[in-house]
Input
Amino acid sequence: MTGRTLRRAIGPGVAVLLLPATSHAHLVNTGLGPFYDGVSHFVLTPEDVLPALALALLAGQRGSRAGRYTLFALPLAWLLGGLLGLARPTMSDAPALTAVSFLALGGLVAAEVRLRPEWVRGLAAVLGLLHGYLNGSAISQAKLGTLGLVGIVSTLFLVVALAAAMVVRIRVPWGRIAVRVAGSWIAAMGLLLLGWSLRGATG
Amino acid sequence: MSKILSMTFLATLWPTLVWAHTEQGRAAGFLAGLHHPVSGLDHVLAMVSVGLWGAQLGPPAVWQLPVTFPMVMAFGGMLGLMGVPLPGVEVGIALSGVLLGLAVLAEWRPPLWAAGVIVGFFAIFHGHAHGTELPDGASGLLYSIGFVMATGTLHAVGIGIGMIHRWGWGRVALRVAGGLVALAGAFFLWRALA
Output
């Protein structure tokens, strides 16, 4: 290889080295630290927001006592599950389980089932442990740590407080119907998500 | 040398795949889901008719029918996604236009359970058709959210239009609209059978 050929090859060679490669970044990165990354992770993850919202609607339908139980039981269970997920992350995504929580909670809201407040609290514990664990596993992979989990749980507390309080205050019949319609939509999304997960195409 | 420099410069501008976040593709899935139910006139007419018929029947049908339809449609969609075959899907969809249009035209008032069964029966065909046509690669959940929201909104449009039922001229206009939907359904039926 002559010196001239070598010089000609240097330019394209450097250019090839400078080519941008495929890059995978974080789960959600706000640039504001793990707490806000956790907040944005929760807000931008309908797999978590919608079942939590459905449970808050259900608690609101069942009155202020069920609302108060849920307001504390759900975030606490979520935190516990999240800590478990952080300590022992095994799975960060379970589409079939998520679909079942959509379907069950959305269906209960749509049918306006008269559950006792203790049952609502039990559902909050189960949902919180399950989704908290999935969240914990996910943020463990994204290296958000406990502060990220605190961001998630704080946002969850706000969502539950606002949604449940709003439903408890509804007095007009069409308002209660709108809540039931919202529940039916969440249940319908759960059915479709179940179909996607059984097909194995939940991108 | 200048040729090499310009080649180098061009090569550094070479665009390649960059995934900034693992959330990529989700917005596209949502928009695809939102678009799918409104992409076919046969679907749109049937879904709006459910709202029109509900508005004619009054409470509780006005909200129970539009709650029944998306849930049963989602069940049909799930069957379609899982690859469970359903014969005569296109015929069922076209028949839904004919029958729902005729129900609005005649201001038919069956018992609530019967109206629910009719709406639910046809919803399975609509859902199955959507389920088998869903694109691969899109976010399943975001697609489902867009899909259900679009369907529910079409019902709401039907209910909104159906509010003219409180006036005499409105009742006539609704019946005319029902007749037009039935005619369109007959056209789709002829096309499905041809």
